[in-house]
Design brief:
With about 90 residues, this protein is α+β, with helices and mostly antiparallel strands. The chain has two helices and four strands, in the order βββαβα. It has helices at about 55-65, 75-80, and strands at about 15-20, 30-40, 45-50, 70. It has a four-stranded antiparallel beta sheet. The radius of gyration is 14 Å and the shape is globular.
Length: about 90
């Protein structure tokens, strides 16, 4: 696997090992990583166990179980804050 590859939503599958930085192109999608570790470059790597809508029972259940999780979400509205529109 190319560890520096940026993934798109269609590339994802459950139980793949990913870095948070590789998910940065995926906007407005809730993702959860399990078994995470902080890397020397300050990135976080973990096993992708959920991706999709945040309004599902499966998503909520991840927050109710005992294992440590790392939620990941890149909000497209926050990225638009730097855009200037002409009026």
């Amino acid at each position: 696997m190319d560890s520096e590859r940026k993934y798109a939503l269609q590339d994802l599958y459950k139980n793949m090992r990913v870095k948070v930085s590789q998910l940065s192109n995926i906007l407005d999608t809730c993702m959860i990583l399990l078994d995470t570790e902080l890397l020397s470059d300050k990135d976080v790597e973990g096993t992708l166990v959920y991706f999709g809508n945040g309004d599902t029972k499966e998503y909520t259940d991840w927050f109710l179980q005992d294992q440590a999780i790392t939620p990941v979400y890149f909000n497209s509205e926050e990225l638009e804050d730097g855009v200037v529109y002409d009026e």
